[in-house]
Q: What sequence folds into this?
């Protein structure tokens, strides 16, 4: 699927309503100012729209033990779950310059889990579905298949 300009991207499951990408980007920029980044000094903010029309946000939270640092997307999904859950339908992520950035591989998997293949992602190439961000993704349905008996030989 090709990238769509922000004005043409609509959120699945919301009756084709257009996503207010400017407002979503602004929410990401605002929460980015709360990032805790004393080590990398690379603040990141993330914002997403849920199928219920709510906006959830997250920022990165570093730790002196670098491996346990939380990405902004992890913070966002934590807020989604603690706020009652739901499905993500549109997502954006920004750096300190206000530029759109791409989620890391770990976070792409996390977004797939909570938004699925239809999740619209504000990428460096434009608005794309999650299938373009994480092609051939591994998801919950793969775990269901893993418990099936192997096919006969």
A:
């Amino acid at each position: 699927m090709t990238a769509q300009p922000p004005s043409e991207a609509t959120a699945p499951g919301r009756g084709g309503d257009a996503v207010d990408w400017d407002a979503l980007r602004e929410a990401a920029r605002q929460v980015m100012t709360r990032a805790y980044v004393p080590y990398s000094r690379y603040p990141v903010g993330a914002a997403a729209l849920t199928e219920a029309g709510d906006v959830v946000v997250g920022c990165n939270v570093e730790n002196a033990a670098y491996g346990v640092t939380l990405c902004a997307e992890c913070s966002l999904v934590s807020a989604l779950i603690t706020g009652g859950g739901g499905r993500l339908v549109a997502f954006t992520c920004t750096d300190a310059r206000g530029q759109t950035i791409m989620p890391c591989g770990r976070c792409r998997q996390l977004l797939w889990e909570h938004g699925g293949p239809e999740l619209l992602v504000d990428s460096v190439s434009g608005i794309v579905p999650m299938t373009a961000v994480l092609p051939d993704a591994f998801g919950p349905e793969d775990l269901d298949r893993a418990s099936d008996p192997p096919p006969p030989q």
Q: What stands out?
A: Residues 21-32 form the longest helix (12 residues). The beta strands are 44-50, 55-59, 88-95, 120-123, 126-129. The first strand starts at residue 44 and ends at 50. The chain has five helices and five strands.
